[in-house]
Amino acid sequence: MTTPFNRHKNILEFALSSLLRRKAKNLSLLGLYSLIVFILASLIFFVHALKQEAAFILRNAPEMVVQRQLAGRHDLIPLDYLTKIRAIRGVESVTPRFWGYYYDPVFRANYTIMVPDEKPLAPGETIIGCGVARVQRIAAGDIVTFRSHTNVPILLNVREILSPESELVASDLILMSRQDFQEMFNLPRGQATDLSVTVTNPDELTTVAIKIAELFPGARPILRSEMLSTYDSLFDWRGGMITMILLSAILSFVIFACDKSSGLSAEERKEIGILKSIGWNTPDILLLKFWEGIAISLSAFMVGSILAYLHVFLFSAPFFASALKGWSVLYPEFRLVPAINAYQLAILFFLSVFPYTAATILPSWLAATVEPDAAMRS
Amino acid sequence: MRKSSTFLLFMAFCILVLATFSLHAHFSSAGGMNNRRYRAQLVQELGLTDLCLFTEARYTRHLSMADNHSAFQDHPVSLEHFPSGALTMPRQFR
Question: Could you state, in order of their start, the residue ranges of all structural domains in chain B?
Answer without folding.
Answer: 1-48, 49-94
